[in-house]
Specification:
The structure is a single chain. This protein has two domains: 32-116, Leucine Dehydrogenase, chain A, domain 1 (Rossmann fold); 141-269, NAD(P)-binding Rossmann-like Domain (Rossmann fold, 3-Layer(aba) Sandwich). Helices cover 41% and strands 16% of the residues. The chain has helices at 8-30, 45-60, 76-88, 107-113, 125-132, 141-150, 172-181, 196-201, 250-256, 267-286; strands spanning 4-5, 35-41, 64-70, 94-97, 161-165, 185-189, 205-208, 226-229, 233-236, 242-245, 259-260. The strands form three sheets. Strands 1-11-8-7-5-6 form a six-stranded parallel sheet, sandwiched between helices. It has a three-stranded parallel sheet with strand order 3-2-4, sandwiched between helices. β9 and β10 form a beta hairpin. It is globular and about 50 Å long. The structure holds guanine. Guanine is lined by residues 96-99, 121, 141-142, 170.
Length: 294
C-alpha cells in the first residue's frame, strides 16, 4: 500500500487565503488591520529564514508586519523594554519572539513578559494553563497545524490512539492537550521511552516531534495509520549535498501508512498559516469582536 500524501503546502495556502479574506472583511467593517510584530535576536540562519517568510506572508494576508532585528549581544533588559513597548502599542495585536534566544537572555522571563492577549505563539504560562484547563487560549501554531492536517484525514479524532513523540513546550505538550480536547486516547513518548517501536505500532495517529532525522522507521508504523512528521532536519546526503528530512523515514513509512505528511511541504507551511490565524484571533479578541470562524 502507498500512503496518501497530506499536502501541507496546499492546505496552508487555503488557510492563508481564508485568513486574508477575513482580514479584508475586518478592515472594511471595523477599520481594523491586524498587526504582527516579530522579534529576532541574533543571526541564526534558520531563524532568519523563518522570520523573512513570516513577514512576507503576514503582508500577503493583508496584515501589518513589524520587524525587529536585534544584535546577538542584546541584553535582557533591552529586550524586555521592547516587549513593554509592543505590549502597549495599539497597532500590534500579535508579538512573536523567535526562539532560541542568546544565552544571556532568560527566555522564560521574556515569554512571561508578553501580554497574554498578544502572545500569538501561545507560549505564555497563562495561555499554556488556559489550554490545559480547557479555557479559550492562544495555542502554539505548530500543534494547531498538526491537528488541522490530521483532520483532513479523520473527520473526528475521538477514540483514536494517538502517539506524540516528543515533550517540548513548543510542540509535544500543547499537542497532547489539543488531542485530549479532541477525545483521542493519547500516549506520550520521549527520549527515555523504553520500546518506542512497540508504542508506535499501536498508534492510529503518530506525531513525530523529536528533531532526530528519520528516527521513526517504516516497520514501526501500524498499517493504515496517519503519520504527521514535525521534524525538519538538515542532513548531508551521499552526494555531499544538504537536504531536509523529517523525524520519520518517509519512504519506508509511506509504504505502510494510510496518510503521511512530507518534509518539506508538510507541517512547516502550516505553522506560519496558523500564526496568521492566531494574529487574526488576537486582533478580534482585543477589539471585542467575535472569534473568527476560519
Ligand atoms: N523556534 C522554533 N519554533 C518556533 C516557534 O514556533 N515560535 C518561535 N517564536 N520560535 C520558534
Amino acid at each position: 500500500m502507498s500512503a496518501r500524501v497530506i499536502d501541507g503546502q496546499a492546505i496552508a495556502a487555503e488557510l492563508r487565503a481564508a485568513v486574508g479574506a477575513e482580514v479584508q472583511r475586518l478592515s472594511r467593517a471595523h477599520a481594523l488591520t491586524p498587526g504582527l510584530a516579530v522579534v529576532l535576536v541574533g543571526e541564526d540562519p534558520a531563524s532568519s529564514v523563518y522570520v523573512r517568510s513570516k513577514a512576507k506572508q503576514t503582508v500577503e494576508a493583508g496584515m501589518r508586519s513589524f520587524d525587529y532585528r536585534l544584535p546577538e549581544s542584546t541584553g535582557e533588559a533591552e529586550l524586555l523594554a521592547l516587549i513593554a513597548r509592543l505590549n502597549a502599542d495599539p497597532a500590534v495585536h500579535g508579538i512573536l519572539v523567535q526562539l532560541p534566544l542568546p544565552k544571556q537572555i532568560d527566555a522564560q522571563k521574556v515569554l512571561g513578559a508578553l501580554d497574554p492577549a498578544k502572545d500569538v505563539d501561545g507560549f505564555h504560562p497563562m495561555n499554556a494553563g488556559r489550554l490545559a484547563t480547557g479555557l479559550p487560549a492562544l495555542v502554539p501554531c505548530t500543534p494547531v497545524g498538526c491537528i488541522r492536517l490530521a483532520k483532513t484525514v479523520h473527520a473526528s479524532l475521538a477514540g483514536l490512539d494517538a502517539l506524540v513523540i516528543g515533550r517540548s513546550n513548543i510542540v509535544g505538550k500543547p499537542l497532547i492537550q489539543l488531542l485530549l480536547a479532541e477525545n483521542a486516547t493519547v500516549t506520550v513518548a520521549h527520549s527515555r521511552t523504553r520500546d518506542l517501536g512497540a508504542a508506535c505500532r499501536r498508534a492510529d495517529l503518530v506525531f513525530a516531534a523529536v528533531g532526530r532525522p528519520e528516527m521513526v522507521r517504516g516497520d514501526w508504523i501500524k498499517p493504515g495509520a496517519t503519520v504527521i512528521d514535525v521534524g525538519i532536519n538538515r542532513v548531508t546526503g551521499e552526494n555531499g549535498k544538504n537536504r531536509l528530512v523529517g523525524d520519520v523515514a518517509y519512504a519506508e513509512a509511506a509504504e505502510v501508512a494510510g496518510a503521511i505528511t512530507p518534509v518539506p511541504r508538510g507541517v512547516g507551511p502550516m505553522t506560519i498559516a496558523c500564526l496568521l490565524l492566531n494574529t487574526l484571533r488576537a486582533a478580534c479578541a482585543i477589539a471585542g469582536l467575535p472569534e473568527p470562524t476560519v
